[in-house]
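Retro notes, item 3 of 5
We never archived the inputs for the MU-OXO-diiron complex last cycle. Fixing that now. Sequence and ligand:
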Amino acid sequence: MVGKIAALGENVHFIGAFDPMIRTFDIIMKTANGSSYNSYLVRGSEGVCVMDTVKKEFSDHFFKRLELLCEYEEIRYIVLHHLEPDHSGALDELMQRAPQAKLIISGRAVMMLKALLKKDIEFEIANTGKTISLGDKTIEFLSTPFLHWPDTMSSYLHEDQILFSGDVFGSHYYDERLFDDEVGDFSYAFKYYYQHIMRPFKQYVRQALDLYQQFDISLIAPLHGPVLRTNPQNYINKYELWSQDAKAHKNIEGKKILSVFYMSSYDNTLAMAEKITQGADAVAGMIASMYDLASLEEQNMIDLLEESDAVIVGSPTINGDAVKPAWDLLACMPYLESAGKVGATFGSYGWTGEAPDMLHDRMQWLKFRLPVSPLKIKLIPTDEELKLCEAFGREVAEIAMGKMVELEL
Ligand code: FEO
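Structure as it came back at the time:
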């Protein structure tokens, strides 16, 4: 059963597949309401274009829908906006069934295509401004990379004012009624999807929104979840708001934020954290604050990390390791843009004191700038050592404010 074939416009139809039972997507996302793999078919007076395919296991539904709308020999173009397997799973089979069809992908997708299909296949590259014609339908391509893979692109169907946005504006939300005005309330899924998929790529979201702005958009056709036809500008506005600089809502123009995250068993790492924060806060233009990881929820960690220009993490060493909340904090970074943030680590220890070094290494992999060595103090910090902590905080803050330093290699 493939259900009804939904029409998005004149001769534009949904031919994707629904996956109501999926509960985890891409390992990192919970999908309480399932999801869908959206693909679309555009028929013009001079042939057919297929927009994306579906996850391989759902190929049957895709092909059944497609066969209700066209013959394979009518397909002139296959457009893949994004090559992740949930959208390219039926590509190989489709190319075999429609060998005359021209495959269109972005330039960055070329290597991925080879890696996915393990064979050479002919394709055409689409950059911003390239158009294809189906007679009375014209499709224009837009380069919108890193949303959320390097290969991603979008396209715009002029005659119907439809934006095919790839994963942008998607939701993991299964509802066969398909259109945003007919499905249940998916607003939580729309935001959750943005936060987990698009948030690390805010600058690219803003670039894509700038490109979309030139078009009158009557309907947004994303690769997952509801098709957005009720005032699409509302959804664009949400993305605009969410992709602003994390500090845009704060009245701190010209200032920077430094956050000290710590955990402490016997108040020694706490004492270090206090002095580091004081030292950092004394630097002109820097707002420094400290946060006890013992009672910070993950969402708060993500929000605080996002707005911080500098992040200093402190942990005691317990059984040769940093404490779990410190690792949990750093595990939030893949949800964020990390490049350019200044980082540093510290901690009090009893025996071996590896924790600050281990956290330092991890932050290096996460692309923090780490201009100072980890600060380690054995057990209770002396007054002299507390002065070192203050100087440490000051140094990190000054560097975050723009002081030039030689980075350690
Ligand atoms: Fe929906 Fe990034 O694949």
